[in-house]
Amino acid sequence: MSDLPQNPGPEGQPAQPAGDPATYSQKFSHAPVAARVPEKVGKGVFSTGICIQDTPTEFIVDFLQSLSRPSTIVARVIISPPVMGGFVQSLRENLNRYIQSFGAPTPLPKPPPNQPKPSIQEIYEHFKLPEDLYSGSYANSFLIAHGPSEFCFDFITGFFPTAAVSCRAYLSAQQIPRMLDTLGMAFQQHQQRYANFHQGPPQAPPSPEGPPQNPKPE
Predict the structure, then answer these.
(1) Full-model pTM
(2) Residue 26 domain-assigned?
(3) Dihedral sign from CA coordinates of 9, 14, 16, 21
(4) Strands (E), 71-214
(5) Residue range(s) defining the domain that contains residue 125
(6) Do the Cβ atoms of 46 and 152 come closer than 8 Å?
(7) How confident is the model at residue 200 (pLDDT cuts 50, 70, 90)?
(8) For residue 92, which phi and psi values (nearest 5 degrees)?
(9) Parallel, antiparallel or unpaired: strands 16-17 and 141-146
(10) In-domain check, residue 212
């Protein structure tokens, strides 16, 4: 996408930046429900839990699978904070509809009281992360569906020429209340931690030739 001034194109055609005949910019959107499902993600992955990391500009959601040995991360999804906010709200609504239809999921056993929480290093030492998942799958929308025993999550990219599912994951209905609590807490903490970051003006990245800004002591 270019920051150059744009010449309006014919109706239904992209705008053309002035002075750059080879660059175009056009707004478009896709309905998630019409997203294509590539064959390689169509079967999805089954997960027994999630682990969340965040930065000022994105959430990284790792779907864990602890049924086999070694325990593994079977999917990694990257979404923006606004998408995460919508995802939490949609999951809450889906869980409420599930309860109305099937009753509350059977609660999972609670961890022992006063059990120390593992550090992120300990978590990723326990769960194997395959190299092909290092960068994860980006998504800017989602669909949530459920049956009597499981929830299905489709994470979707809405890019031209068509929306497509970038990741599909399944979790048992028993896992959903805990998942919702984890996501909601992560989103709330993110808002508190980065409130000033999102309110301030965008910062331009430093020039590659210039010295680093605010260097951290080694």
Answers:
(1) 0.77
(2) no
(3) negative
(4) 72-79, 137-138, 141-146, 150-157, 164-172
(5) 31-104+118-192
(6) no
(7) low
(8) -60, -45
(9) unpaired
(10) no
